[in-house]
Every structure is written in structure tokens, then in C-alpha cells.
């Protein structure tokens, strides 16, 4: 007979597993499986800690960060019932570090191919497809977490965390589309972007009002309003992403030579294998909470860690074959200018070593408790980040 874990934390673990799995898999699809080469302009792929390091060193450090987090999960799963909170924190952290790894790997590939003799710089479109799609993903994930949260789970910290993320990425998305509207030649396209932006910000305003009411009067009625007004934010933002990422608004894909395609496959392949191993860890842990007496699921987590470790070693071997990127960032002249995010949640992520995994988790908690992003998308959207103060 299967023995399930206590429902009061099994639900939390399952939700975090689903969130992490969707996040890293979708980012990998956008950057690794799309067949294109993308330079991620926002600061999640250019963290402040490692900004002065070479592309080569930045990628190596991030590979080690992922290994440390996954190793920590593999150790904790042996005593899962006692350390389940630590596993939850580490799963969230794994989502962040793997996302950052994929983004840095994509930037590394862009910079590497820019050193090839047959490199042709890409033509920019009105919209950066990855930035818009990633912003939509973060909004969707935060809205889904808010909708799925039970009444007793909506603590001030939980609301602040989700609202800050929604605020941050609505600001990113509307700024991207506002710039596209200003540059578009077709008046109908300009009007469509403006109307979409207005739709998103109005929906966000309704969500803000419902959350304010819930904070002032913590009742089931106001909780129901929060859930109801998540829907228009979700629908309007996803509609805007679909519209903004049409081929007509995005620049043409970079045409790669056969040599460049082979290099891309050699580097993106092991990076994708790392992502796949982490996805399998999420699936194994999710299954374990419903069958906690099955030792094969614990062994499966350890097998996934071994797979991630092998893929990481493979990736390290591949990037060491390209010493041209052991230069300092100043020597890379073909890199597009970065558009830095103001949110410290991504850019303050410290380096990880085997001895400071706990410090990293504590720092991440401190960041969420003390920081909120700056929004430029109007008072309604910026209010999201201050609701729980």
C-alpha cells in the first residue's frame, strides 16, 4: 500500500515541483530548443556578482552553482520528512539557478559565434521575443500560484513575493511593448499595442484593489475576489505576449553556418541535458510525496543528480575547447547593450559553493523580505510591490 505524506506540506511540495519544472523547461524551450541564438539583455543573465568576469568564467561558475543546489537536494531527500522545508527552498533555488544557467549559456553561444569570420549581426525587430515571452511566463506562473494558494496560505510574505514578481514583469512587458508602439510604422499596430498595454494595466489595477481589500479584511469573500481578478491579468498579459511575439514584430533568426550549428549543438546539448535532469528531479520528488515508502524514488533522485553531474562535466569540457572567450567582457565588441532590471531578486544572487548553500538560501529569503522592484508602468502596477508593507 502506498503511504502518502502529510497533506499539510505535500500540497506545498507538489506546487513548488510543478512551478520549478514548468519554469526551467519553458526557458530551455525558448533559448535552447528554438534553434535560434539569442542574447538575453536583462540582468538575470548578467548578474552583478559576476559582471566583471569573462563569459567563459561566468558559465563555469553557474554550472557549479547548479551542481551545488542539486547536490543539496539529493542529500536532503534521504531524510525528506525532516528536511522537507529545506528541499522546498532548494527546489525554488534550483529553478532560479537553472534559469540563469540557460540564459548565460545562450549569451555565451551568442558571444562565441560573434567571433566567427562568417558572423553576420542579427537585425533587430520591434520586440525582443525572449524578453517578452519570459515576462509572460513569470506573470503566468505567479498568477497560477496565487490562484492555487489556499486561503490559509495567503500570508503577507507570500502575497508580497507574488505581487512583486507580477509587478516586475508587467513593467518589463509593458515597457517592451511601449517601445515597440513608438517605433512601429503602421498606425493600426501602434494603436493595438497601446490598447493591449491599457488592458494589462487596468486588469492589474483590479487585482490590486482586490488584494488591498483582502489585506484589510481577511475574509473568504475578499479571497474569492483575488482569485477572480487573477484571471483578467493572466488573460490580458498572455494575449499581449502572443500578439507581441508575432514573426512580423521580431527580428529574423540568425542564419548559422554548418560549423556554427555544430558548435551550437555541442554546447546546447549538454546544457539541455542538465535541464532535463533537473526536471526529472522535480517529477521524482512529486511522486515521492504520494508514495513515501518507495525507496526507488529516492534512488531516482540520486540517479538524476549523477546525470546532471555527467552533463555538467560534458558542458565544461565543451566550453574549454573555446579559449577565445576567456577574455574580459570589455574585449567583446559584438554584444548588444544590456537593459538592466532594477529588481534585486535576480541580480543579487550570490555565487554558490559546497560550503555556503545555506547562506545562499538565507540570502534569497532576505532579498524577498526586504526588497521590491521598481515599476515604470504607472501607479497601479507599482503598487503591487508595496501591498504587504
TrEMBL record:
Identify the InterPro entries for this entry: Talin_IBS2B, TLNRD1
Query: What are the boundaries of the region Disordered?
Result: 330-352, 365-389
- An example Pfam family from this entry, by short name, is Talin_IBS2B
Domain (Talin IBS2B): give its ranges: 135-244
**Annotated Polar residues bias:** 330-342, 369-389
PANTHER family recorded = TALIN ROD DOMAIN-CONTAINING PROTEIN 1
Its recorded name reads: Talin IBS2B domain-containing protein
Amino acid at each position: 500500500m502506498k503511504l502518502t505524506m502529510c497533506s499539510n506540506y505535500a500540497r506545498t511540495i507538489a506546487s513548488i515541483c510543478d512551478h520549478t519544472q514548468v519554469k526551467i523547461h519553458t526557458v530551455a524551450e525558448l533559448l535552447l530548443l528554438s534553434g535560434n541564438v539569442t542574447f538575453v539583455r536583462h540582468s538575470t543573465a548578467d548578474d552583478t556578482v559576476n559582471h566583471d568576469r569573462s563569459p567563459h568564467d561566468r558559465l563555469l561558475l553557474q554550472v557549479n552553482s547548479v551542481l551545488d543546489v542539486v547536490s543539496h537536494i539529493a542529500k536532503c531527500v534521504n531524510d525528506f520528512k525532516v528536511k522537507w522545508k529545506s528541499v522546498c527552498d532548494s527546489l525554488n533555488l534550483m529553478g532560479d539557478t537553472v534559469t540563469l544557467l540557460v540564459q548565460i549559456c545562450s549569451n555565451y553561444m551568442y558571444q562565441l559565434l560573434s567571433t566567427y569570420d562568417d558572423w553576420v549581426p542579427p537585425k533587430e525587430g520591434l520586440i525582443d521575443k525572449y524578453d517578452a515571452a519570459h515576462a509572460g511566463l513569470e506573470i503566468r506562473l505567479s498568477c497560477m500560484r496565487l490562484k492555487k494558494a489556499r486561503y490559509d496560505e495567503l500570508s503577507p510574505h507570500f502575497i508580497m513575493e507574488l505581487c512583486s514578481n507580477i509587478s516586475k514583469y508587467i513593467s518589463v512587458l509593458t515597457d517592451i511593448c511601449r517601445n515597440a508602439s513608438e517605433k512601429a510604422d503602421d498606425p493600426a499596430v501602434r494603436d493595438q499595442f497601446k490598447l493591449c498595454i491599457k488592458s494589462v494595466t487596468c486588469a492589474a489595477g483590479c487585482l490590486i484593489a482586490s488584494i488591498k481589500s483582502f489585506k484589510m479584511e481577511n475574509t473568504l469573500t475578499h479571497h474569492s475576489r483575488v482569485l477572480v481578478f487573477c484571471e483578467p491579468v493572466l488573460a490580458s498579459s498572455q494575449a499581449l505576449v502572443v500578439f507581441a511575439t508575432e514573426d512580423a514584430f521580431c527580428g529574423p533568426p540568425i542564419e548559422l553556418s554548418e560549423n556554427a550549428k555544430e558548435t551550437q549543438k555541442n554546447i546546447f546539448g549538454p546544457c539541455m541535458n542538465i535541464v532535463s535532469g533537473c526536471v526529472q528531479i522535480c517529477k521524482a520528488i512529486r511522486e515521492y510525496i504520494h508514495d513515501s515508502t518507495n525507496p526507488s524514488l529516492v534512488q531516482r533522485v540520486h540517479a538524476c543528480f549523477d546525470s546532471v553531474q555527467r552533463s555538467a562535466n560534458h558542458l565544461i569540457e565543451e566550453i574549454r575547447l573555446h579559449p577565445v572567450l576567456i577574455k574580459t567582457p570589455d574585449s567583446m565588441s559584438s554584444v548588444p547593450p544590456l537593459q538592466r532590471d532594477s529588481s534585486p531578486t535576480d541580480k543579487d544572487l550570490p555565487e554558490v559553493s559546497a560550503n555556503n548553500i545555506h547562506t545562499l538560501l538565507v540570502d534569497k529569503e532576505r532579498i524577498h523580505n526586504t526588497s521590491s522592484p521598481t515599476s515604470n508602468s504607472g501607479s497601479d502596477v507599482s503598487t503591487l510591490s508595496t501591498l504587504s508593507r
